[in-house]
Amino acid sequence: MNRQDHIVRGFKATLVSRAIYMVSSALLMLVLARFLLDPDGYGALYWAIGVLAVIQLVADLGLGKSAARYFSEYRERDPGQIPHLIRTTLALKIALLSIVTTALLAFHEHLAAALGDPGAAPFLAAGALYIVAFSFSTTSQIALQGFNRLGYSAAIQAISGAGRLVFAVAFVVLGTGALGALFGYVVGYSISAAVGLTILYLEYYARYEPAETYEPGLARRLAEYSVPLTATRSANVIDKRIDVVLVGVFLTPAAVAFYQLGKQITDFALAPAEALGFTISPNFGEQKATGQLESARRIYETSLTNVLLLYVPAAVGLVIVADPFVTMVFGADYAGAVPVLQVLAGFIVLQAITNLTSDSLDYLGRARSRAVAKGATSVANFGLNLALIPTFGVVGAAAATVATHSVYVAVNLYIVHSELSLRLERLGRTVARVCGITGVMAVAVSLVTPLISNVVMLFVAIALGAATWGVLAVTTGMIDAQQVRSVIS
């Protein structure tokens, strides 16, 4: 199987599994928000998850991605080192988890009080289990990505999504409220972690004959490479979670619900870009190691073109239909999420590019450069949130995210260009064509938006926009219909 066929096959498997994960996440979001929890309960749940995500940083560091990088390298160079690498990774992770969860159980009440919400203490106590389950689930998923077993890796995420949906809804229906939903998350992640660790053991730890000696310095390099990855991951959490925490500190649980709902909708929209980035990124490490940078450039440019073609029109369409979409699907109680979603539409385009680029830079060995950029923009994001949330509320938090992420994306693209020598003039022409398609599509959707009076008309408007986009993309040559048919088949 050639590299392109391998990428297409991996993308299909990843996209299907991500679709399962995102559909289950969307159903969970819809059922909890519309039927089972009021805005205060919904906000309390996701505020606690935001706090736990920050704590999770210490429990995970960058070990998962660092291990994936060395799995990718040594499965070709010296497979006998793989069992040693797996043992080192798990030993370090267990040690970190033990320290973090013990501290959380001992001080959860003090932490809740310090954050201004003593009622969150039970959520933080339960968070010790959440951190362990989530950590092993994501670590096994990332490790399998490093082995380029994308089908397995994506399946773990699909299992976690389906498990969260089933158990979170079941526990809330049994009368346990938002805390029960958190335990549903724990069960879902625990099941996926068990599956992932079993695959790692059977396929790689037990399958490879360990080398007689552990390569000198390899364990140290594994730990050292996790440092810039930890910085990058910390910055990612600041971008994705700390704003939720700050909204809860400065505003109300209902405000957290509005902001979180807007972010969850953007996450759902980003599933294809995340799947594509997850699929192509291991290939960059392999191609750099073999000097095939021209091939790496073609893959990246083609992927970037497809991402822009999909997400620029999608973001503009979301701005136009955000009001009827939120109020009709989730209810009038969540109307406060409409302006958040409209501002975050810009973030969708930026994050789509990031999903395509960030992991690729790690495999190209530029994790340190990306970490510096991410750290700087995340500190700026934190400062902007502190300045804007008290004055502009949840819209200020969304604006801070878009502003700082714009800078981060620009730096990422510069780093990729320095590695792969992107054809900028060609990409510029691509952007111009995408904007033209977007303009025509926006006119079509705007004409029917005033006619939207129910959910059926809402989806008619969305379908009209999608049809206009598809026709223009094919007729302008942005999409090759024959290639689309070959990918689908």
Automatic annotation (TrEMBL):
Gene Ontology CC, one term: plasma membrane
Stretches that traverse the bilayer: 20-37, 43-64, 85-107, 119-138, 150-176, 242-261, 303-322, 387-411, 431-452, 458-479
Membrane topology field: Multi-pass membrane protein
Keywords per UniProt: Cell membrane, Membrane, Transmembrane, Transmembrane helix
Domain of life: Archaea
Keyword Transmembrane among UniProt keywords: yes
Location of the protein in the cell: Cell membrane
Protein name in the entry: Polysaccharide biosynthesis protein
